[in-house]
Write a structure and sequence with these properties.
A 7-stranded mixed sheet has the order 1-2-3-4-5-7-6. It contains 4 helices and 7 strands. The two termini are 20 Å apart. 26% of the residues lie in helices and 33% in strands. It has a single domain, classed as Gcn5-related N-acetyltransferase (GNAT) (Aminopeptidase), CATH 3.40.630.
């Protein structure tokens, strides 16, 4: 990871819990409304979201006791060989964009994932989401490809940029 970016000291990182779901889902909805964050169009229930994300590496970021972003990981496969490969979800309240919140949260997610033995993080990002592409790159992700017309969003075919971060400390044997 590039070390020339300073993480703001006024941010608090903590585990995402069920009781946080109301605010987490609000931030998720704000991402959906941009049209450049996800193919998802409806907010899932807590139970559905919980089932689809790893129980570890669920992180909230707070500023002045207000939840302003969240990140979590999903398994890419149930096969044993892929146990250390996960997909990143990260959402920041747009009111806090440009304040290094996304970088700081993704950096914390990388550290947490390595503590859990995860060696590869991957992300599928709409090419129009320049801020997310830059944040991922700053945290050590590299572009490995582009999926063209991979899915429709509101009737329009969309591409995604595939990014990946391979740990330098986990799975290096």
């Amino acid at each position: 990871m590039k070390s020339n970016i300073i993480i703001p000291k006024n941010l608090l990182f903590r585990p995402l819990e069920k009781q946080d779901w109301h605010r987490v889902s609000e931030i998720y909805a704000l991402g959906i409304m941009t049209g450049n964050a996800t193919f998802q169009q409806d907010i899932p229930s807590w139970e559905e979201w919980d089932k689809n994300h790893l129980k570890t590496c669920r992180i909230l970021v707070e500023k002045e006791k207000q939840i302003i972003g969240w990140a979590a990981l999903s398994a890419v496969s149930s096969r044993e060989v892929y146990q250390g490969v996960t997909e990143v979800s990260i959402y920041i309240d747009p009111l806090f964009s440009g304040q290094k919140v996304g970088f700081s949260l993704l950096h914390q997610l990388v550290l947490a994932s390595e503590k859990q033995g995860i060696w590869t993080l991957q992300a599928g990002i709409f090419p129009e989401n320049i801020a997310s592409l830059k944040i991922h790159e700053q945290v050590g992700f590299r572009t490995i490809g582009k999926r063209e017309n991979v899915g429709k969003l509101k009737g329009v075919w969309r591409d995604t940029v595939l990014m990946e971060r391979r740990s330098l400390v986990v799975g290096v044997d």
